[in-house]
Structure prediction request, 247 residues.
Amino acid sequence: MANQKKKQSTGPSLSRRPGKALQAKSRAGAAGQKRGTDLARVRAILEKLDEAYPAATCALKHQNAFQLLIATILSAQCTDERVNQVTPGLFAKYPKPEDFAYANPAELEREIRSTGFFRNKTKSIMGASRKIVDEFHGEVPKTMEQLLTLPGVARKTANVVLGTAFGIASGVVVDTHVQRVSGRLDLTKNTDPKKIEQDLIRVVPQEKWILFAHQLIWHGRRVCQARKPRCIECNLERICYSKDKTV
Ligand code: SF4
Prediction:
């Protein structure tokens, strides 16, 4: 993947030095109060995810950070498959940020219509591209703070770009799959994505943040599906006590 400076960890080894919050949770568990985020349990979950998805990565097709940013904006309320059908033609027609920045909005709306919410997405894509051209010398910024100044970019999109394009673990991507699966695995009791991210950041070692989010997304798509999780095929079944379990 172009522009990737740090490699994601894909091996099964885990941090031997968990953060203070994680150690405190572990002590709470050892005191007799078994919790969803007990250190040993979280480790077991991470090991199982590594076994099942050692090389999970972003499913959005892209060749650089800017293309990933545009694809991620398009993926809101839309499947990655649909976005991947639209982006090859789009990136061929608009290869650089300035091409999107000064596009004909009506034309762009037509070109991305099939991804849904095409008017808002056109505004976001053109606005973000204009800002990248005007304020960031045509380059996608590499900090959370700067990315959040781009129109249409919130924490989820910023985490996707920083993690996947630049290898920077700034947080944990929380999409609908991460939201659902982390809840079922009792890693969070929250439903607000920002709070879920904070819960996950507290229990997952930072060097795992990027891969962990991709693994939960893959697990949510392939096994722990929204309507009917395929628990019989799930390698986490023995350590999952979700009320949604089907076995
Ligand atoms: S056991 Fe079922 S509910 Fe639990 S993580 Fe696996 S698929 Fe999801």
